[in-house]
Write a structure and sequence with these properties.
The structure is a single chain. The chain is flat. Helix content is about 65%, strand content about 0%. The protein starts with a helix and ends with a helix. With about 90 residues, it is mostly helical. The chain has six helices and no strands.
C-alpha cells in the first residue's frame, strides 16, 4: 500500500496543473492558498536532484519571466536518477 506522500507523488501530473491555474486567480486569498498548496504538494517529490529547485519552479509559475533562468539552473545541474516502483509503474 502506498503512503499518502507516494499517492500524491503519483498524481503530480494531475494535481500541479490544476493548482498552478489557481495561482492566476483574481482573489489574492486564492493565489496565496494555491501557492501554499503547491509548496506542500511539491514536498512529496522524492527526487533529491530536483528538491533544491522546487522554490524556483514554483516561482516560475507566478512569474513567467523567470522561466529562462530556472531552465538554466536546472540545465546546469547534473541529475542522478533513481528508479522507484512508482516511476516504473508509469512506464
Amino acid at each position: 500500500m502506498l503512503s499518502a506522500g507516494e499517492q500524491v507523488n503519483t498524481l503530480m501530473p494531475q494535481i500541479v496543473p490544476q493548482v498552478a491555474a489557481m495561482m492566476w486567480e483574481m482573489k489574492q486569498e486564492v493565489k496565496d492558498a494555491a501557492s501554499a498548496c503547491l509548496e506542500e504538494v511539491c514536498g512529496c517529490i522524492d527526487n533529491r536532484d530536483i528538491e533544491p529547485f522546487i522554490p524556483a519552479m514554483i516561482s516560475c509559475i507566478q512569474h513567467p519571466e523567470e522561466v529562462q533562468e530556472c531552465v538554466h539552473l536546472l540545465g546546469a545541474k547534473p541529475l542522478h536518477f533513481s528508479i522507484s516502483a512508482t516511476r516504473v509503474a508509469h512506464c
